[in-house]
């Protein structure tokens, strides 16, 4: 009976947030004054719709586990004789797992946003965009055809454009949303060409059918291998842009210009997850082509390593986490390339909850910092202004520490199980990729604990924002935490700067900005800064302000996300050590209630942990190095620490630091060779259009205008003989032209 119900009611999941989003946006447009009075009601309706979608997903998933069925319902969308476009719903384990992931993460983000965006003028608009975003992603995962996937694929891109540029009055946000939109258009164009190519080869847009036909044609050598690889790589170009793979990753770090809740949703369960979902959906098609598999695996490996190195020296808290997402997405793309799409999806799930926890935790920190240092992202998101936050914000600090441990691959947290699977498989398939995956794991532990030590341990540094030591530390801190270059002889008197709301920020921050610009200018030129601290600014406050823990609506999602960060990794682990390959098409998500039945032999668990010792040691080494570099001032200071800090003066370390701060110089060359080239070609096309296309049309128009004027004046007397004479001349010329 459920097979019928599942087909009939699967539409509820994407429709609930879509309908509420449209109603919210329409009401806000037609009745802007009325909607302000009921803004909280709009939030409740949007949250409730997504909770209904989440419960529906859980019910469908429960029945699917019982019935072990894949259900598909299609109806004609564009019926034609030569081509028939269909639309409908596909209900299988992959669909329902992604649906649960999107709805659970989206619900928590919406609850969190009620407090985070409470005083924003675009509160109602934000919820309308947020519901549209989740509805687009849910529509994508339920799509049974490539055409329907492409429609929702574009809706996901449009929603991300609206949310990244939500604060469009800020120039950086406006540029960031345009950058994300244009970069994704490159991948989407390739994706569209790949869809047309698969239809040319298989004659179908339905995913299950075209994968079977493509595999059959490729195995029988009925299709040219070069054409087949080109088509698959064109399809893969869509996930390259959507999931921020090298070289189309440049939009992801700038996407943090949007509100922090949307950053959490983009990096956890929606936009970047769409690319991984598509690769998993068409994996049976990809795995028949070894060349494409190899290219995909190396793209993922390079992206993982590149993202980890670019995160080394970033000062913006959200941008550090963005490069972390890029690196972990590289793992997820690497996994299908080496033949294990199951591990990619497993890591997608574990990473989603951990990264949502980290981003929402960073939002809690930023929300608290804004009350102290103002609303400029260069200050409220700057990790060098933070420190000791775990003491002042215990819930945020503890949950952030939990997410950090998980992302570093420390057992038994979630990401350990999935990341270890990918690393183990990489070593078996390709040792070079194994080295890259293992090295990236160590780098991940290093930069994640760098973030934790600098933000959560030690002393709170924002109160010293205008002192010489703080500004020099901000601009001179090296990759390895060396602060020997700070001139201790100038201005040892501590100074405190207290901001209370926007009025104090605008009144007092002008003088502080002058001091900051003065120091930055001297540091850039290499001169020794001479800072004269004003006594009235130094003594402007005696009671020092400190961050405070966020309210209940912001800490509740952090606590809830801490549970899957701890336990979700156990759900996808095969503790039986059997030869059966558990994947998403079977029952690879093992219910926790069956653990005792499946694990009667504890030796299986011991064997599994033994196999993961190598990756754990690498991660712990990264944690230890980060502790020596950034954590010694907070805890201990030994001889080995002093010796290790000598590396901070090496040219090699400084090269890595500059590489990270300048984003690997990729944006620089991207601007020179791509952006400027496109602008130059656009100007040439504009000139061609204005002078040749428009010029020829305008020229013929002008010729007709002046010719008619001349004829009008020539025959201005109105005498018929003149007209007859002109007619005869024209006839004679036609005869001569025809018979000459």
UniProtKB/TrEMBL annotation:
One of its GO terms (molecular function) is NADH dehydrogenase activity. Keywords: Chloroplast, Membrane, NAD, NADP, Plastid, Plastoquinone, Quinone, Thylakoid, Translocase, Transmembrane, Transmembrane helix, Transport. Its EC number is 7.1.1.-. Residues 144-443 form the NADH:quinone oxidoreductase/Mrp antiporter transmembrane domain. GO terms for cellular component: chloroplast thylakoid membrane. Residues 450-689 form the NADH:ubiquinone/plastoquinone oxidoreductase chloroplast chain 5 C-terminal domain. The keyword Cytoplasm does not apply. PROSITE patterns: PROKAR_LIPOPROTEIN. The chain crosses the membrane at residues 12-31, 43-61, 94-112, 124-143, 149-169, 181-201, 221-241, 262-283, 295-313, 392-413, 433-453, 552-575, 612-630, 720-739. Signal peptide: none annotated. It catalyses: a plastoquinone + NADPH + (n+1) H(+)(in) = a plastoquinol + NADP(+) + n H(+)(out); a plastoquinone + NADH + (n+1) H(+)(in) = a plastoquinol + NAD(+) + n H(+)(out). It is a multi-pass membrane protein. The keyword Transport applies. It is found in: Plastid, Chloroplast thylakoid membrane. Residues 77-127 form the NADH-Ubiquinone oxidoreductase (complex I) chain 5 N-terminal domain. Gene3D superfamilies: 1.20.5.2700. One of its GO terms (biological process) is ATP synthesis coupled electron transport. NDH shuttles electrons from NAD(P)H:plastoquinone, via FMN and iron-sulfur (Fe-S) centers, to quinones in the photosynthetic chain and possibly in a chloroplast respiratory chain. The immediate electron acceptor for the enzyme in this species is believed to be plastoquinone. Couples the redox reaction to proton translocation, and thus conserves the redox energy in a proton gradient. NDH is composed of at least 16 different subunits, 5 of which are encoded in the nucleus. Belongs to the complex I subunit 5 family. This is NAD(P)H-quinone oxidoreductase subunit 5, chloroplastic. It comes from Odontosoria chinensis. The lineage of its organism: Eukaryota, Viridiplantae, Streptophyta, Embryophyta, Tracheophyta.
């Amino acid at each position: 009976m459920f097979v019928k119900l599942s087909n009939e009611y699967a539409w509820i999941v994407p429709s609930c947030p879509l309908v509420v989003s449209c109603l919210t946006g329409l009401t806000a447009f037609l009745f802007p004054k009325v909607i302000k009075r009921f803004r909280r009601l709009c939030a409740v309706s949007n949250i409730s719709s997504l909770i209904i979608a989440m419960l529906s997903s859980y019910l469908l998933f429960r029945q699917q586990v019982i019935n072990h069925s894949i259900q598909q319902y299609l109806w004609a969308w564009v019926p034609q004789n030569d081509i028939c476009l269909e639309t409908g719903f596909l209900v299988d384990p992959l669909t329902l797992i992604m649906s649960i992931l999107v709805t659970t993460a989206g619900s928590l983000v919406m609850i969190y946003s009620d407090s985070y965006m409470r005083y924003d003028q675009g509160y109602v608009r934000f919820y309308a965009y947020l519901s549209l975003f989740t509805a687009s992603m849910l529509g994508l995962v339920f799509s049974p055809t490539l055409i329907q996937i492409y429609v929702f694929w574009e809706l996901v891109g449009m929603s991300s454009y609206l949310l990244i540029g939500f604060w469009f009055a800020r120039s950086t946000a406006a540029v960031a949303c345009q950058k994300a939109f244009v970069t994704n258009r490159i991948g989407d164009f390739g994706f569209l060409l790949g869809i047309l190519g698969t239809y040319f080869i298989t004659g179908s847009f339905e995913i299950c059918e075209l994968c079977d036909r493509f595999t059959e044609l490729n195995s029988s050598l009925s299709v040219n291998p070069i054409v087949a690889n080109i088509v698959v790589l064109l399809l893969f170009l869509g996930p390259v842009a959507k999931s921020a793979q090298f070289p189309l990753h440049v939009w992801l770090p700038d996407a943090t210009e949007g509100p922090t809740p949307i950053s959490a949703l983009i990096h956890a369960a929606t936009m970047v997850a769409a690319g991984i979902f598509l690769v998993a959906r068409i994996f049976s098609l990809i795995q028949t082509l070894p060349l494409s598999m190899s290219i995909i695996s190396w793209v993922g490996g390079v992206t993982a390593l590149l993202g980890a190195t670019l995160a080394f020296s970033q000062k913006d808290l959200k941008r550090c986490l963005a490069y972390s997402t890029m690196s972990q997405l590289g793992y997820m793309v690497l996994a299908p390339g080496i033949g294990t799409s199951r591990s990619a999806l497993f890591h997608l799930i574990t990473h989603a909850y951990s990264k949502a926890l980290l981003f929402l935790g960073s939002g809690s920190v930023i929300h608290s910092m804004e009350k102290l240092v103002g609303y400029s992202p260069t200050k409220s998101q700057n990790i060098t202004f933070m420190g000791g936050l775990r003491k002042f914000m215990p819930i945020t600090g503890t949950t952030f520490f939990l997410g950090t441990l998980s992302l570093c691959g420390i057992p038994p947290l979630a990401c350990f199980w999935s990341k270890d699977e990918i690393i183990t498989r990489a070593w078996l398939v390709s040792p070079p990729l194994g080295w890259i995956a293992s090295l990236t794991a160590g780098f991940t532990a290093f930069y994640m604990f760098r973030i934790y030590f600098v933000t959560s341990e030690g002393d709170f540094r924002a109160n010293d924002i205008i002192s010489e030591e703080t500004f020099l530390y901000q601009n001179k801190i090296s990759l390895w935490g060396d602060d020997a270059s700070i001139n201790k002889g100038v201005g040892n008197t501590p100074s405190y700067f207290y901001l209370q709301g926007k009025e104090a920020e605008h009144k007092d921050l002008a003088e502080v900005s002058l001091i900051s610009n003065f120091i930055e200018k001297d540091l850039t030129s290499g001169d020794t800064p001479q800072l004269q601290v004003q006594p009235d600014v130094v003594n402007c406050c005696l009671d020092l302000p400190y961050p405070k823990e966020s309210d209940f609506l912001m800490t509740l999602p952090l606590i809830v996300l801490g549970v899957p960060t701890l336990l979700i990794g156990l759900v996808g682990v095969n503790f039986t050590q059997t030869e059966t390959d558990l994947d998403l098409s079977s029952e690879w998500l093992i219910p926790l209630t069956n653990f005792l039945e499946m694990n009667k032999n504890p030796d299986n668990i011991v064997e599994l942990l033994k196999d993961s010792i190598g990756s754990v040691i690498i991660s712990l080494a990264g944690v230890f190095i980060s502790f020596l570099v950034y954590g010694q001032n907070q805890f201990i200071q030994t001889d080995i620490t002093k010796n290790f800090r000598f590396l901070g003066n090496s040219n090699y370390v400084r090269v890595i630091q500059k590489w990270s701060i300048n984003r690997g110089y990729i944006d620089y060359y991207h601007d020179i060779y791509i952006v400027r080239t496109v602008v130059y070609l656009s100007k040439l096309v504009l000139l061609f259009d204005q002078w040749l296309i428009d010029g020829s049309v305008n020229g013929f128009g002008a010729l007709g205008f002046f010719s008619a004027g001349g004829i009008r004046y020539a025959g201005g007397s109105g005498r018929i003989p003149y007209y007859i004479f002109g007619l005869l001349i024209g006839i004679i010329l036609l005869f001569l032209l025809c018979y000459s």
